[in-house]
What does this fold into?
Amino acid sequence: MRRLLTSCFALGYLPLAPGTWGSLPPVIVFILLCQSGASTLLISTVMAASVLTFSFICIKFAPAIIAATGKSDPREVVADEFAGQAVTLIPIGLVPSGQIWTTAVLGFLLFRLLDIIKPWPARKLEKLPKGWGILADDLMAGVYAAIILLVCLKVGVIEYLSSLEGNLPF
It folds into this structure.
C-alpha cells in the first residue's frame, strides 16, 4: 500500500522521468475544474487538499521506501511531485476559458524546470531527513513556479501565448 500511494498509483513506475508523470494529475484536475466552471475557491481548495494529502503520504510512507530501496530519493516516489505541482496551481484559481490550457501547460513546464534545476534553497532542502527531504525541494519549486505563473498572468504573458495557439502549425 505504501508503494502504491507514494508512487501515485504506479505513476512512479512509468519509464522516462517518473517525476513528470507524477506532476500530471494535478494539472489534469486543474484543467477539468476550470473547464467545468468551478469557482476559484473550489479550485484552490482542491489544490491545497492535494498538497496536504500527498505531502502527508510522502512524509509518512517515503521513509519505508527509502529503507527498502537504499536510495535517499527513490525514483518511484512521486507523491512529492504531485504535491509540488499542486502548490503551483493553488493561487491561480479560475482563468478565462481561452487561457486554461496555456496556464496549465506553462505551470506544468515551470514546475518541472524548477524541480529539475532546484534553485536556492531547494537543493539545500533536499538534504532534510527521510520524506521531508524528498518533499521540501518540490514544495519550494512549486512556490517559485506559482510566483512566476502569477506574474505571467498579471502582465499578460498567458493572454499573449493563448492568442498564438490558433497560429501554431500543430
Q: What stands out?
A: The chain is about 70% helix and 0% strand.
